# Entry
Amino acid sequence: MTTIASVQHLSRFVDQDVRLRGWIYHKSSKGKLHFVQLRDGTGIAQCVLFQKDVPEALFEAVGRAGQESSLELVGRVKADARAPGGYEISVNDGVVHQAVDGYPISPKEHGPDFLLSQRHLWLRSKRPWATLRVRDAVITALRQFFDSRDFLLVDSPVFTPSACEGTSNLFEVEYFERKAYLTQSGQLYAEAAAMAFGNVYCFGPTFRAEKSKTRRHLTEFWMLEPEMAYATLDDVLDLAEDMLCHVVQEVLRRRRPELEILERDTAKLEAIQKPFPRMTYDQAAEILKNHPDSTFRYGDDFGAPDETILSNMHDRPVMITRYPKDVKAFYMKRDPEDPTKALCVDVLAPEGVGEIIGGSQREDDLDALLTRIKEHELPQEFFEWFLDLRRYGTVPHGGFGLGLERTVAWICGLEHVREASPWPRLMYRIEP
Ligand code: 4AD
Ligand code: MG
# Structure
């Protein structure tokens, strides 16, 4: 039996016969020749079938097989600098499993709505393929980063009895005789885990009933949330900075061909180095006040256009700290030097994606947190366990949440976060 090879590892098989198993990405025929671009999931390889070198039945079957026909081809691997990917297969045998005619996604341009409806097939096309391979590398790099720093993975639940990030965008579900909510963030549970294990992170799907149709919002997205015991806001900033540098470096190291398919300007990624610019909300407000395109009012949260102005000023992510407490979540610690501000940070990615990270030092004082829960009109009985963390050995602690899809959208240079999810969930779309 000939060795089964994958396209990504063809370099290991130069001048040997291999068997490739995949689908026809593209085919062109000239008389006694078929050129098949065979897609096997790991890459695309150019395969050449000379009529005289292959069984007649195979030559005819390939002749009838359209885009996305499934087939196996056996042939000799030749290094060829002109071939896409650098290798060409001189085919001598093979079999067509299913000849397909009329695959819905042709190489011509399709609108985004059509493609989203065809997501189950669209995944096979080059751009989604490259994007999701970058997503994979981002996830691997994140896990590796936290693992190498001895952060323990402790995942948070999806069903929760109460809100975490405000009540306006909660998904409510029937839960037997009562109501439950799909989690907006795993943070509160990560805080409990940090008191048990020190440094932890959780990584899973989170949900927000966003009634907005922006290019930054999904209703279901993945969030990675580290939480550190005995940590201050500065520790949170340093961790976020190191993490983002590591992730970008790893994507550059492992996913160059994919970034090329996406036509990503990699010089912009090479520029992602420490230190990241850091400024306070007040400093950012001063910049926006003098900017002709801004409608910002002091005291408000930054809108998408404001974030774009601030992030376009820098070639690397910018870290904005100390927002007014009133625009931020109940659990954030107040700045002792200015109690109208929260000890928090938003990290804005360059090139218009906006906020990719939100984090803070947490309120670790029992009475202060009780007051916050009352001010935010949250049901105290559901937060008793969270308050226990402040009753039994409370310590300064903090962490952040990284939005995976926005991070991937930034690294890939995507127009819309929905492309960074294999199965995007949006206000008007949960199919397929
Ligand atoms: O800033 P957020 O709301 O922070 C939290 O949920 C904290 N509890 C995290 C923590 O401190 N552990 O959300 C964190 C990140 C945002 O910066 C953004 O990247 C992403 O989650 N995000 C979304 N991504 C896609 N679609 C949405 N609707 C998102 N909402 C937030
Ligand atoms: Mg935020």
About this structure: The first strand starts at residue 3 and ends at 4.
